[in-house]
Amino acid sequence: MKRFFYVLFLLFISLFSFSQATFTPNFAIPSPLCSGIALTTTCAVTPGTTAIVGYTWTSTPAGPVIGAPNASVTSISFGTAGTFTISVTATAGGTNTASVSQVVTVNPTPTITATPNPATICVGNSSTLTAAGGTSYTWTPSSSLSSANGSPVTANPATTTNYTVIGETGGCSSTAVVSLVVNPAMSLLITASPSFTTCPGGSATLTATGAGAAGVYTWSPGTGLSSTTGSAVVSSPVVNTAYTIVGLDPLTGCTGTANVSMVIG
Fold first, then answer.
1. Rounded to 5 degrees, what are φ and ψ at 13?
2. N or C: which end of the chain has fewer CB within 10 A?
3. Do 161 and 207 belong together in one domain?
4. Same domain flag for 10 and 87
5. Are the beta carbons of 31 and 102 closer than 8 angstroms?
6. Which CATH number belongs to the domain containing residue 168 in this structure?
7. Strand order, beta sheet including 254-264
8. Which of 54, 79, 107 is where one domain is finished?
9. Is a pLDDT exceeding 50 seen at residue 201?
């Protein structure tokens, strides 16, 4: 009888010892993370000489995508925000298994938008750039902006410019790009036929171009002119007269100015 209990005791000890893992697994994932991030993590065991024959990675709840669920090294993509328990079970054969888990917090990555108002300006004018979706914003390039930070900001570039804004909230960030179109400076050309010099009692036809196909032109002063509007006017000055011409492109709203003089010769 004593021998029976002794054998039973040895069997119990053997089974109990066999069920205990002879190694410790471990891995590390930074937390918190931002949704949309993908990273690679490795299950390492101590002692390192342990011959591991299998791995099983899991997530509770489901959501993160585990790229290699049965390998020691795997990628994990966190597509959505939430709190997830990532676990790995390593097996060295039979019941010689061990598991380790880590709770990972995933914060939402903001969706950032940016809009210009207006979207097209003339040289020298400005537009208001407004970002939304975050709690703080950083703009680049910032040399033509009223500020590199915040929303809204005022933009006054000399040429068409694409602005990138980084919006952040809760330690997570994303970007948006907004384009501000700048129409080039208007260059008016004024010609005279036959000449800018006329005899007393003479006249010349002054013609303005450069404000586009539908350009609108205004002439001043009106003294000695056949009209104060139009691309072509007749000048019959009594004395030397300097004229200012303002051209307007109705398609862009941009204006330009030129100055000419009629001289009595």
1. -60, -40
2. N
3. no
4. yes
5. yes
6. 2.60.40
7. 197-198, 254-264, 241-249, 216-220
8. 107
9. yes
